[in-house]
Amino acid sequence: VRLANQVLQKVVTRYLQRDSLLISSIKRLAELAKIGQEALMNGDVDELGSIMLEAWRLHQELDPYCSNSFVDNLFKSAEKFCCGYKLVGAGGGGFALLLARDKNCAMELRKLLEVSNLGVKVYNWKIHFDGSDGDNFTSFFR
Description:
kinase, GHMP kinase C-terminal domain-containing protein, GHMP_kinase_C_dom, GHMP_kinase_C_sf, 4-stranded antiparallel sheet, 4 strands, single chain, fucokinase activity, flat
C-alpha cells in the first residue's frame, strides 16, 4: 500500500499557503541531511539513528498519513534492537529502514522478523566506516 499518496501535492499546497510548521520541518530536514552525512562519515551509528528518528517524526508531521498501524507496530516491536528507523524510497513507501544498534541486535531483529509472520523480506547489509570492520549492521526490509 502506498502510504505517501500525493504527498508532493499536499506539501506544495501547504508551502504555497506559507504553513509555518511545514516550512520549519523542511528546513530541519535539510539540516538533518547535513548532520547525518557527518555522522555517517564519522561512524557515529547512534547519532545517525537519532537523526533517522527525528526525520521520521518530521515526515509524519509533513504527512500524517505516511504511516499505518502495520508500520507503527513493526517499528514498536523493533525498537529495542534499533537506534533508528524510518520509511524510505519513492514517496516514502518503498522500504522500511531499521538501523540496528550492533551486530547482535541485527541478528536478534532478523530472528524476530522471520518468526513474526509479518510477511516481510529482510535484507542485511553492513555500513563500513573508515577504519571499521563493518560490524555495524542494519536490517532493511519491505
